[in-house]
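Bug #2210: token dump truncated for Catabolite control protein?
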Amino acid sequence: MSSPTIKDVAKLAGVSISTVSRVMNDSKPVSPEARRKVLDAIEKLDFKPNELARSLVMKRSNLIGVVVKDIGIPYMAQIVRGAEEIGRMYKYDILLSSTYGDLEQEKKIIDFMFTKQVEGIILISEDIEPEVIFKLKDQTVPYIQLDKFWNIKDVHTVQIDYKEAMINMINHIYDLGHKKILFVKENQDTEIGQEKLKGYRQACDDLKLEKFEISSEGVSVKDGYEAGDKIFQLKELQDITCVSFSEDAQAIGFINYCYDNNKKVPEDISVSGFGDIPMTSIYRPTLTTVQEPYYDIGAVSMRTLVKVLKENKTINEKAILGSQIMKRESVKDIN
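Reproduced locally. Full output below:
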């Protein structure tokens, strides 16, 4: 038996095809009685519209493209979850694909998503490629670009105030009695990394603390581990009591270094991170860190796109969310 059509619904309900279409798409007012008849007919016939044909006619797909570097990266998965769950609330599905850091693949994926008539795109990266941004700007669909390390002017994004978050972290460490705080910055001069450094310096100036800074080669666990010798040399020379890292992975790498070299955290030295990746709350000692609200970043990104699509809102260049200090075991109270 063939599937029921919109004509069958109209016939059973005793209304026109255009009335059925208005009820289904909620496009124009329909009398309550006609709406009830249409909905009853749809239920009795178990009518399911052809979504592909419907999207072609309506020029709407109810799809949002989500492009990620790697869905296996935990914080990216949290962003995607936030976007997907909010999208479902508004009857939008996501079309998800990973680029694995390949620029050409990233461009191909975006082109592919446009062929699927996505109504908006959320791009989650760790290294902004200007070519990709230009490609998105050339299209008429709204987009939001999320990057943990880089900022580009005139790009729609959702993030926290990294400078303010680092100021809050240093103030928290100071309140626990630490007066000599070392900051381990990223060797690569990322804009967001620079904001964190500005926050450290501003907090030290406000608290009248001496500044101690070293560079890490990168932001990985390996980079944090390899910074261990340099950190303890400076600790011995300057009596450093706490080291604050630009990223959680660095902090975890350094804690591993301490374990391998018979140093105890926080007894011998306190440690803080930035990001609140899942590992920080289950690692021992649990890591004091700045919580970046990854789920909320994804949720706000999707909600922003939906407002643009449904209410013709314009996207502000940047949405700033709040952050909080996760006070855990790795920073010792020495008051």
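Output looks complete on our side. The two ends are 79 Å apart (CA to CA). Marking as cannot-reproduce; reopen if the truncation happens again.
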